[in-house]
Amino acid sequence: MKLVLVLFLMKMLNGQDSLFWFDMSSVMDSIPKTPKTLDRIFGSEQLSTLDSLIKNRSATIDGFRLQIFESSSVDEATKKFNKFKKILSDSLYLTFEAPFYKVRYGDFVSKQEAETEKKKLSKKGLKNIWTIRSRIKKIR
User: Domains in the chain, please, with CATH?
Assistant: First the structure.
């Protein structure tokens, strides 16, 4: 062990500042072909999961939703979600974006549609509503 350490130190003192003493241009071997590691690491079931994510992404488009409530309490957000579910006709979504739980309403293709619905909800007495960009279900 001491001999290896002494040889290493001698090599370092002779102007070599690296453990890589050889010249890469002198390597004669071809670059090895590696296997497809994705299949060996993830397996075929993971690939189908990735495919389903792509399909899900293609089933949605950029659009707008109305955020009608947010809270740091999941219980409070769930109560509001259930309350709004009874009085609103369109799709409702309960999402978590740290640190808030958010209740969002609707799937609007244009901002104008969302703003029109926002005015209707304001007339029904809902306050603090704002329009947000979101991925929405593709309308067929």
Answer: 62-137 (3.30.70.1070)
pLDDT tens digits, one per residue of 56-80: 556 778 899 999 999 999 999 999 9
Q: What are the residue ranges of helices labelled H in the chain?
A: 2-13, 37-58, 74-87, 111-123
- Closest to 106 measured CA to CA, from 78, 131, 86: 131
**Residue whose entry in the numeric block shows the structure tokens 């949605």:** 60
Note whether 109 and 61 are within 8 A (CB): yes
Question: Using CA atoms, how far apart are residues 134 and 95, in angstroms rounded to an integer?
Answer: 12
In angstroms, how far is CA 121 from the centroid of its own chain?
A: 31
pTM of full prediction above 0.90: no
99 cis-preceded (ω within 30 degrees of 0): yes
Residue pair 65/134 in contact by the 8 Å Cβ criterion: yes
How many whole angstroms separate alpha carbon 138 and alpha carbon 62?
9
DSSP conformation class of 125: T
